From TrEMBL:
<dbReference type="Pfam" id="PF00754">
    <property type="entry name" value="F5_F8_type_C"/>
</dbReference>
<dbReference type="InterPro" id="IPR008979">
    <property type="entry name" value="Galactose-bd-like_sf"/>
</dbReference>
<protein>
    <submittedName>
        <fullName>Uncharacterized protein</fullName>
    </submittedName>
</protein>
<dbReference type="InterPro" id="IPR000421">
    <property type="entry name" value="FA58C"/>
</dbReference>
Length: 261
């Protein structure tokens, strides 16, 4: 259930540019990253909205939330500096890139001006990884800024969070140091499939206080950590501590019964 929906991160940047894709865009500054609710025209970043290329009669804009989220609605806007907005649209969703898209039965009414946000509620809340907006009609050009509304879901059935299968991108993984390109942080992934070809993360030899970090982008519930040593040499970590935080700067040490573990 999603009893207290929130904005899911397009507007405030929690959703990264790499998570946004579009079928087409009129220019780099009118690409998917410009399609964020309330984003102003910004030199080098945005020309006022996402705008599909002229002649694209079946445009779409998509967000990959990286893991299932519950979406209850969509907020849309037009282009901030031109009379361009989406008048009607459809919403589609799926869980995996190989699956067929499902869609809400409604054709939603969009905007009537440049900047007034309009929120539409889905027929029923939908929990999926990928959500895609298909504009059906528009004013002058197909231009849109948007935000999804809903809930990041809790931990109902524990599942791997994405290191081994590559769902967690290399850009989300950092470390205090590494000693060679093939032992960079992005290779510190659990080996469950030999064809994935990961090696390991290894800190630099003079790093006396090494650390390894993942930014999940959205809040997640972590129940356990699985670790391995390096496959092709007799090296592994014997003990470690776990810290967590919300901003990448202030961290809390994991403890049990008030005692750091």
């Amino acid at each position: 259930s999603c009893s207290n929906p929130i904005r899911l991160g397009l507007e405030d940047g929690r959703i990264q540019d790499s998570q946004i894709s579009v079928k087409s865009s009129a220019s780099t500054l009118l690409g998917g990253k410009a399609g964020r609710l309330n984003l102003p025209k910004t030199p080098g970043v945005s020309s006022g909205a996402w705008r599909a290329i002229h002649g694209d009669n079946t445009p779409w804009i998509q967000v990959d939330f990286l893991r299932p989220v519950t979406v209850t609605g969509v907020i849309t806007q037009g282009r901030i500096n031109n009379d361009q907005w989406v008048k009607t649209f459809k919403v589609k969703y799926r869980d995996d890139a190989s699956m067929t898209w499902k869609q809400d039965s409604k054709v939603f009414n969009g905007n009537v001006d440049r900047n007034t946000p309009r929120e539409n509620t889905l027929t029923t809340p939908e929990t999926h990884r990928f959500f895609r907006i298909y504009p059906k009609s528009w004013k002058n050009y197909c231009s849109m800024r948007l935000e999804f509304v809903g809930c990041y879901i809790g931990c109902r059935d524990g599942a791997p969070l994405g290191f081994a299968n590559g769902l967690i991108h290399a850009s989300q993984i950092t470390a205090s140091s590494y000693n060679a390109p093939m032992t960079a942080p992005q290779f510190g992934r659990l080996v469950v499939d030999q064809q994935m070809n990961w090696d390991c993360w290894r800190s630099a030899g003079d790093d006396s206080d090494p650390w390894f970090q993942v930014d999940f982008i959205a809040k997640v519930i972590v129940e356990e950590v699985q670790t391995q040593g390096r496959e092709n040499t007799k090296t592994w970590t014997k003990t470690y501590k776990l810290l967590y935080g919300d901003d990448g700067y202030d961290f809390t040490e994991y403890s049990e019964n008030g005692v750091p573990k």
